Amino acid sequence: MMPDTFRKFPQRAALWLKLARLRTHGGNRLAYLAFAACSAMLAACGFLPPPHTVPMPALQDRQGTDARAMRLIVMLPGIYDKAGDFVSEGFVKDLRASGIDADVLIPEAHYGYYEARDVDVRLETDIFAPARAQGYKEIWIVGVSLGGLGSLLYSAKFPDAVTGIFLIAPFPGTDKVLAEIEHSGGALAWSRSPQAQGGGERHALLWLAAMGSMQEAKTNNAAHVPQIFMGTGKSDRLVEGQKMLASLLPATHVNFVEGGHDWATWRLLWRSFLDKGPWAGEAARQAHLDRIKL
Q1: Does any domain span residue 242?
Q2: Is residue 85 part of a domain?
Q3: Which of 9, 15, 31, 32 has the fewest other C-beta atoms within 10 Å?
Q4: Domain CATH number, residue 281
Q5: What are residue 248's DSSP bridge partners?
Q6: pLDDT tens digits, residue range 121-141?
Q7: Alpha helices in the chain (DSSP H)
Q8: Residue 141 in contact with residue 151, Cβ under 8 Å?
Q9: Claim: this prediction has a pTM higher than 0.85
Q10: Residue 17's domain spans which residues?
Q11: Which parts of the chain register pLDDT below 50?
Q12: Phi, psi of 234 (to 5 degrees)
């Protein structure tokens, strides 16, 4: 079997090349050409993201074989990861052990969809719209790393589509946008500045700021306000930007634990969310019923 280091290299290569283009844009032309040559060589060797497939493929795990669950959880992977990693890393196993009433759908939402700038549209067309047609009462997104940003990009585009979001160690944004936020004096101040009206991930961050304010105020606004939670490791390499995202949410919706930007930390956060999050009462009731049956 191919080692994980080599399985994950294509996604790493795509990210590094993207960052290289961003960092050399408007800068050293020779450096940019060198990176472009590397890109061509990597493409020839197959070291690029998987194909941009339409429709977006997905893995499914149903709670039972007879009936659909009341809730659907859509899990979005990070830039280095595949849909199957949520299974191999124990996320689905932990959910099933909790007794929570939920089906799981895991799109293969790799970096190629972000590069093509249509991850939100593909998620709506291929994943969420069909799920709504099946009649789920609740639809949640659980996004790790880049999948966390994908969760926000989708929800900002289709704000009425999801019941709630759990951001796990989310990618907080590009260096340029994070610098804008820092120079503005924080995320809330930035959200009111002209810079916030630009493109890229800014629309998603503006949406998060608006939703976070509504959650904090516990407003009865007629607009749909999904529940938004976030967790990350205290030693995560993106933690400074993640603290900015956390500042937009109620403190009770944020969880910092020991750990870095890795699956062990993400699973710890996932287990804590299952035990203490919005579904915890449901899991406790199921455990009580199980004890009665015994």
Answers
A1: yes
A2: yes
A3: 31
A4: 3.40.50.1820
A5: none
A6: 999 999 999 999 999 999 999
A7: 4-7, 9-24, 29-45, 85-88, 91-98, 111-115, 119-123, 129-133, 146-157, 175-184, 187-191, 202-217, 239-246, 263-276, 280-293
A8: yes
A9: no
A10: 4-45
A11: 1-27, 32, 35-36, 39-40, 42-47, 288, 290-292, 294
A12: -65, -25
